[in-house]
Amino acid sequence: MTGLLPRFTGLADWLADQTGADALTIDSITKMAGGAIQENWHLEVTISGGRLDGAGALVLRTDAPSSVGESHGRTAEYALLQAAFAAGVAVARPHLLAPGRDVIGTPFFIMDHRPGKGQARKIVRDPALPEYGDALAAALGREMARIHSIGTCDESLSFLPLSGDNAAEAQIADSRAALDALDSGQPVTEYALNWLEDRLDEWRCDRPRVLCHRDFRTGNYLVDKGRLTAVLDWEFAGWSDPAEDIGWLCARCWRFGNDEQLVGGIAGFAAFRKAYEAEAGRAIDLRAVMYWQVIAEIRWAIISRQQEQRALSGGETSLELALSGYLTAEMERNMLDLITAIEAGATEGPL
Amino acid sequence: MGPGRKMDKTMKTEAAKTEAAKRRDDPGTAALVSAVRAEFETNIRGETENRYSAAMIARALLILERRVAGTLYTDTQQALADSGFDDVDALALAIRNRTLNADQQTDLPRVLAALVAAQLSVSAPDRR
């Protein structure tokens, strides 16, 4: 193909070399929507011979100009994708990794292209959602349980840190460290962290930690004709309490206005719970989920402040990042509402 | 608390605060922001193909309009005064270090709710 962006001129040769193709052409490269932290490029390719013989569409995932402190690099994310694929999780099959900068200027990996839409607001506003919402929530439950079947004994993921005695205390410590790096104090988040710390006995899990996606939410999976086709964006994955992923998926900040639909704005909790528990072979700790919902609001509040700070004092000109800070108050409202509900006697989440 | 934040705080002079307050209270600024937003909504937003960028600009202008015309600054200062602290940095530090006295601790949820409500008045008034 002629007219490729200069950064991609060496890509076809690299792909041909890595796959052993007899002939390979890149017919088009199109930047895909979304991706404030990473960029995804849709590649239409014609390949004959080699390990990707006949492949028509691939996705190249690489770094965007901005990043978030806790996100993994592409090499780590590729290993996570491989582990998830091997565990039977619905993900795009990973094919190739380029950890250096010599091919396109940034590290990247190549994976299958999966069909479907990922934009959260389009999913939660789909007029047909009531027809498939429960089935989609059940699929999410099954996939999440498969992710949680991966334990710390998986040597391919030995690079993931395992800090602190348990996920709850580690999360509180990580959140405070992140707050210390912000330009301004966050009294509501500090209050919520103290409140959680004072009640650790209520939600701390002493079982071995498992692999958690840690950004498993509407907007990070693909839906095609009402069916889940892929779980995306593994850059935050790490060892944690399974309740963290459930609390994150069900956090109000990720319901995109469909507040009555607890599971990511798409469905109630029952179908998700039944499918998750059937796949995992154990019950969800519903009490812990409530507390992890508070953590979810804290994490997103901190990320939104980090993004704002990058735009306002970090030299990155981005209206999207600058506006992020204006989301924080909504997460703070959610933290206070959750704390009020739990103090009023709520015993089982999600709320 | 990080050392950078402490350094920033020492740089906040009373003069700078007064100047900032003057800018917020300038009715000309409020009118200009409103006019820019009206012009954008009427003559530009519907014409552009980049709906995502247009939506972000519209939201930014709406926030600016509310900030300039609203009472975010005074509401925040009132909530802080009720807490006995001069600024959010000092309040956050006291919460972290658990140095609030009993009265401040009792009053804290109300103070925090007021601070959040002040912020929501510009970013999401329907969530106040």
Proportion of residues in β-strands of chain A: 5-15%
Specify the CATH architecture of the largest domain in chain A.
Alpha-Beta Complex
Lateral strand order in the biggest sheet of chain A: 1-2-3-5-4
Helical amount of chain A = 40-55%
- Helix coverage percent of residues of chain B? over 70%
Number of helices of chain B: 7
Question: Average pLDDT of chain A, to the nearest integer?
Answer: 93
CA-based gyration radius of chain B = 18 Å
Please tell me the total number of domains of chain B: 1
Strand tally of chain B is 0
Unreliable spans of chain B are: 6-12
Sheet bearing the most strands of chain B, described?
A: none
* CATH fold-level label of the largest domain in chain A: Aminoglycoside 3'-phosphotransferase, Chain: A, domain 2
CATH superfamily of the largest domain in chain A: Aminoglycoside phosphotransferase (APH), C-terminal lobe
Summarize the structure.
The complex is a heterodimer of chains A (351) and B (128). Chain A has helices at residues 11-19, 74-86, 120-124, 129-147, 167-180, 187-198, 200-203, 242-250, 269-280, 286-312, 319-324, 328-343, and strands at residues 23-31, 38-48, 57-63, 94-98, 108-112, 210-212, 221-224, 227-231, 238-240.
Q: Could you characterize the architecture of this molecule?
A:
The complex is a heterodimer of chains A (351) and B (128). Chain A has 351 residues and is an alpha+beta fold. Chain A is built from 12 helices and 9 strands. In chain A, the strands form 3 sheets. Chain A has a 5-stranded antiparallel beta sheet with strand order 1-2-3-5-4, with helices on both faces. In chain A, helix 6 (187-198) packs antiparallel against helix 10, helix 6 packs parallel to helix 12 and helix 8 (242-250) crosses helix 10. Chain A is globular, with a radius of gyration of 21 Å. The termini of chain A are far apart. Chain B has helices spanning 3-10, 14-25, 27-44, 51-69, 72-83, 88-97, 102-123. In chain B, helix 3 (27-44) packs antiparallel against helix 4 (51-69). The chains are: A alpha+beta (351), B mainly alpha (128).
